[in-house]
Structure formats: C-alpha cells, structure tokens
Amino acid sequence: AYLVAGGIALRYDELARADHEFSLALERSPGDAYAVLERGAIASTRGERKEALRLLERAARLNPRDPLTRQALLLVRAGRVVSVQELNRSILQTAQQLA
C-alpha cells in the first residue's frame, strides 16, 4: 500500500509525501529496490546529491541488473540531476514494452 501511495503522491508532485510513503514501504520491506530507487530520484530532484548517491548506490546493489537504476546512478555520479518524473516515465515505458 505504501508503494501505491508513494506513486500517487508523485503523480501530484508531492515529493515530501512520496518520500515518506516510500520510507514507510522500506520499513516493511528493507530490500525493496523500487522504493530505494524512487527515494534516490526524489533526493536528486530536490538537489540532495549526497543522499541521492547513497540511495541510488543501495538500489544498484539491490537490483544490479536494472538499467534504469544504473543510468540514474551514473547521472548523479556525473553531477547531473535525476528527475523523478522522467524516471517514472521511463519505468512506465519499459513496463509497456514488456507487456
């Protein structure tokens, strides 16, 4: 439920609420790579580079084969911002291609 609530908050551009919901999801399932990835993208969008790096590195360890996670991590390492909205568009596009 927390993942869904976080996703809904992102649709309304409520980053603080989304981050809180994904944080709650991680309390229940600490190894949830998706929640960590979303929190990393939120941190990057907010300009919190150090936190974004920490979270995206963790997401990459949890899901090392995910190309979107690797790409987000490379962008932040290069000093660029990962837009949480762009990331979610990419996730949706990838899911549609798999369907």
Oligomerization status of the protein chains = single chain
The end-to-end distance, rounded to whole angstroms, is 23 Å
| Structural class assignment | mainly alpha
Element order: H for helix, E for strand: HHHHHH
What is the averaged pLDDT score?
A: 95
Poorly predicted residue ranges:
none
For the CA atoms, what is the radius of gyration? 12 Å
Topology, element by element:
Elements: H1 2-11, H2 15-28, H3 33-45, H4 49-62, H5 67-77, H6 84-98
List keywords for this structure.
mainly alpha; 6 helices; 99 residues; single chain
Provide structural commentary.
- By secondary structure, the protein is mostly helical.
- It is 78% helix and 0% strand.
- It contains 6 helices and no strands.
Describe what is shown at a glance.
By secondary structure, this protein is mainly α. 78% of the residues lie in helices and 0% in strands.
